[in-house]
């Protein structure tokens, strides 16, 4: 027999425990409700629009006849987000590396961090306006509205997201790994490239995916930069359609067929981002050591 | 020395100086202890610290310290927490200056080259003076093989399988990992990880190995293996080992230096320090009266 006697847990503590557990479970449920509803409505309203021709034909813009598909919007979104990612990711990760590995606590680094925070808070339409005023009105590149100008606005939007998330992840890389590399005689740049970046890669990828998802869903920066058109364009100097812009345009139309197309486009957009996320996770798991 | 060219720190060494014909170390194998009984296979370099001063910001943590580490011998640094043991070894391979706000002054001679001379490349210094840290820190994204190869690859040198094998044998880890060289280094046990880190340090063929409390995060059996390894490693490198554990110093070190508040109190053959020290503070510390 043990000589130590523990007092039983009081009824009050049991009650509080139950209440607290119930409370957090309830809040989790509340948070899931809109998410589930969004997915439900997307599938319910959007699935009806989807067919093979939905993905392979351009919108016709015809009010009475066949409204066509969303090919130009899919192509435009892929091209513009792709270009924006290709620009924003190297720059953003580069800035994050500089902040964590070199700038550290210098005055310039603090200033850069401050501006990135400000940029994160800038509404997306402001980036659109900025590009509209500088590039579109100025007719830079011999075009008014153009795909690359949309990409520019999206890249500006992605840059602070990529930088901030990469910075946080790079800071999480234990200093002992950097020290181990330095102690082996590795120069600093090689330590960053071969030790720090690979260690931080999964986190950086997560941040990049967040930024891509955000950019792919933005309407405002594209409306006055890439415009809304029907035809598929592969030339970055042409006007380009995009899924959010197409949704924005169609959902306000007084025709159920066009609204249904908007739902189908929304479902397509969500599915594209989901596939991208899954793909990135898969590649990441492959590249990890087994 | 007036010619402190970095090439002086890159003396080519015989590629087979790490014992490769040795049977693997086991805990049951008797190993000669102390007194430098092991015959050196390669003459390593001596380290001489002269009037070393080190600061962390305003805090003056090493004060005018002068201390020699004889080649192919293990020298233990003992002393209470905050006495500057780790700082001294971190000054030897210039890792001290990696800490923001930290600086050092004085001379640290590797044979006769001052590693703090303005003409000396810090990268070359660290290739000659390897380091093992308190907590095992294998690179998490790399396999066992790649971890050992990392030092060579990070310094733009080619890596052969036999170099990795030799380093792993030198660290007494080969027999345990030879069938899973492609597995992640972080999948090993703590003691194995630490020996992996020793292998990683050995692979770049240093002249000196600094060990900063290499066993303090390990269990007794792993500690024993590391201690046996120190005995083996003296054949090829000069060892400076920081330890909190006085029994460990007594077991592995040929010489022992006692530090207190950033100053050297006493240095001498380990046996003398532990049985008949000159300074009363050393006696009080080694007999457990403080620290």
CATH topology of chain A: MetI-like fold
Architecture of chain B, CATH level 2? Answer: 3-Layer(aba) Sandwich
Largest interface: A-B, 23 and 32 residues
Tell me the distance between the termini of chain A.
Answer: 49 Å
Oligomer: heterodimer
- Helix count of chain A? 11
Q: Give the total of beta strands of chain B.
A: 10
H/E series of chain B, N to C?
Answer: EEEHEEHEHHHHEHEHEEHH
Shape of chain A: globular
The proportion of strand residues of chain B reads: 15-25%
Which structural traits does this protein have?
heterodimer; A: 290 residues; mainly alpha; MetI-like fold; 73% helix; 0% strand; B: 291 residues; alpha/beta; Rossmann fold; 4-stranded antiparallel β-sheet; 30% helix; disordered N terminus
Question: Your description of this structure?
Answer:
The complex is a heterodimer of chains A (290) and B (291). Chain A is mainly alpha-helical. Chain A contains eleven helices and no strands. In chain A, helix 4 (107-121) crosses helix 6 (147-172) and helix 10 (243-251) runs antiparallel to helix 11 (256-287). With 291 residues, chain B is of the alpha/beta class. Chain B is 30% helix and 22% strand. Chain B contains ten helices and ten strands. Chain B has helices at 85-92, 122-128, 144-154, 161-170, 174-177, 190-203, 220-233, 246-252, 270-275, 280-286; strands spanning 47-56, 59-69, 74-78, 102-110, 113-114, 129-132, 208-212, 238-242, 255-260, 263-269. Chain B has a six-stranded mixed beta sheet with strand order 6-7-8-3-9-10, sandwiched between helices. In chain B, helix 3 runs parallel beside helix 6. Mean pLDDT of chain B is 85; it is low at 1-8 and 10-37. The interface between A and B is medium-sized, with 23 and 32 residues.
């Amino acid at each position: 027999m043990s000589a130590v006697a523990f007092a039983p847990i009081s009824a009050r503590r049991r009650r509080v425990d139950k209440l607290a557990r119930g409370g957090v479970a309830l809040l989790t449920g509340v948070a899931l409700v809109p998410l589930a509803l969004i997915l439900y409505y997307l599938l319910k309203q959007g699935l009806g629009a989807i067919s093979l021709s939905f993905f392979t034909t351009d919108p016709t813009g015809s009010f009475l006849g066949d409204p066509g598909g969303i090919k130009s919007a899919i192509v435009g979104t892929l091209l513009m987000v792709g270009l924006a990612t290709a620009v924003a990711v190297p720059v953003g990760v580069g800035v994050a590396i500089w902040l964590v590995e070199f700038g550290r606590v210098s005055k310039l680094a603090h200033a850069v961090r401050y501006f990135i925070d400000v940029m994160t808070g800038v509404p997306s339409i402001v980036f659109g306006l900025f590009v509209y005023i500088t590039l579109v009105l100025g007719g830079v590149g011999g075009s008014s509205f153009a795909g690359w100008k949309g990409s520019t606005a999206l890249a500006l939007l992605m840059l602070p997201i990529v930088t901030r998330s990469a910075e946080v992840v790079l800071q999480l890389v234990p200093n002992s790994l950097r020290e181990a590399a330095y102690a082996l005689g590795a120069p600093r740049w090689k330590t960053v490239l071969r030790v720090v970046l690979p260690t931080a890669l999964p986190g950086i990828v997560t941040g990049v995916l967040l930024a891509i998802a955000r950019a792919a869903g933005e309407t405002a920066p594209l409306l006055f930069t890439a415009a809304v058109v029907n035809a598929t364009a592969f030339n970055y100097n042409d006007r380009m359609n995009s899924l959010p812009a197409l949704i924005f345009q169609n959902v306000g139309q007084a025709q159920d067929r066009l609204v249904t197309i908007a739902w189908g486009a929304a479902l397509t957009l969500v599915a594209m981002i989901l596939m991208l996320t899954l793909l990135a996770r898969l590649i990441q798991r492959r590249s990890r050591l087994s | 020395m007036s010619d402190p060219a970095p090439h002086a720190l890159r003396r080519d060494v015989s590629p087979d100086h790490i014992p490769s014909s040795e049977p693997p170390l086991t805990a049951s194998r008797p190993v000669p202890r102390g007194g430098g009984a092991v015959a050196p296979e390669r003459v390593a370099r001596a380290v001489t610290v002269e009037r070393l001063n080190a600061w962390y910001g305003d805090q003056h943590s090493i004060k005018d310290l002068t201390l020699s580490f004889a080649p192919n011998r293990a020298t233990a640094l003992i002393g209470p927490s905050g006495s500057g043991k780790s700082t001294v070894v971190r000054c030897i391979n210039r890792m001290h200056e990696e800490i923001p706000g930290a600086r050092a002054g004085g001379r640290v001679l590797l044979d006769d080259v001052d590693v703090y001379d303005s003409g000396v490349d810090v990268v070359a210094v660290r290739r000659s003076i390897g380091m093992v840290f308190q907590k095992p820190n294998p690179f998490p994204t790399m396999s066992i093989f790649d971890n050992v190869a990392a030092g060579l690859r990070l310094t733009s040198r080619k890596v052969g399988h036999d170099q990795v094998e030799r380093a792993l044998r030198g660290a007494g880890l080969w027999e345990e990992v030879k069938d899973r060289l492609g597995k992640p280094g972080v999948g090993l046990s703590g003691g194995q990880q630490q020996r992996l880190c020793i292998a990683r340090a050995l692979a770049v063929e240093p002249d000196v190995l600094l060990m900063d409390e290499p066993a303090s995060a390990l269990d007794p059996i792993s500690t024993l293996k590391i201690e046996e390894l120190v005995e083996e490693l003296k054949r090829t490198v000069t060892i400076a080992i920081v330890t909190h554990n006085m029994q460990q110093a007594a077991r592995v070190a040929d010489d022992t230096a006692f530090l207190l508040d950033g100053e050297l109190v006493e240095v001498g053959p380990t046996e003398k320090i532990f049985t008949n020290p000159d300074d009363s503070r050393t006696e009080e510390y080694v007999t457990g009266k403080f620290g």
